[in-house]
Design a protein that fits this description.
34% helix, NADH Oxidase, 5 helices, 178 residues, single chain, 4-stranded antiparallel beta sheet
Length: 178
């Protein structure tokens, strides 16, 4: 799948088969996440990866009902911001850097036929603190979001949101001024 096709056809998948994701596919997903730009190349993200179903359930509990897709996922990746690596003059760029990494991982997975859904954590501080406590994170590491991955279960509704392939909205474009 080429890049534009991956971008234009990606959908959020919330129901997965029980098929495992290979170590090779996981490495490609993580490499994609680490390949995006970051503020002054700080690379101020880290990741907690788990395939453990009990831990995935606890992560879902910690993030609330919208994170239920973790319960059936083959693996989850918690995207983290590492403030010790962040750009000192503007440390909040970790949020954008984590978003770019997450998007790259989702697109890489989609290109390999693996479904995913982005599950927000930051800035909902109760979720941040629950994930921090669950995983024993240091104070300088902040949970950003969780990505649930698995092969789409075609026997269930797996797609959320607008199902149009063309999501372009010309009325959202302003040339040269508002």
């Amino acid at each position: 799948m080429d890049t534009l096709e991956a971008i234009m056809t990606r959908k959020s998948v919330r129901n997965f088969t029980d098929q495992a994701i290979s170590d090779e596919a996981l490495e490609i997903i993580l490499k994609a996440g680490m390949s995006g730009p970051s503020c002054v190349n700080a690379r101020d993200w880290s990741f907690v990866v788990t395939r453990e179903s009990e831990l995935l359930k606890k992560m879902a509990d910690a993030n609330g009902r919208p994170a239920d897709p973790l319960r059936g996922a083959a693996l989850g990746i918690l995207v983290l911001g590492d403030l010790e690596r962040a750009f000192k003059l503007a440390p909040d760029y970790w949020i954008i850097d984590g978003s770019i990494a997450a998007q790259n991982m989702i697109l890489a997975a989609h290109a390999m036929g693996i479904g995913s859904v982005w599950l927000g954590t930051y800035p909902q501080m109760e979720r941040v603190e629950a994930q921090r406590k669950l995983l024993g994170l240091p104070d300088t590491v902040i949970p950003h979001s969780i990505l649930a991955f698995g092969y789409p279960d075609s026997s269930k509704e797996t797609i959320s949101g607008d199902t149009r392939n063309d999501r372009y909205e010309s009325n959202r474009i302003h040339m040269d001024k508002w």
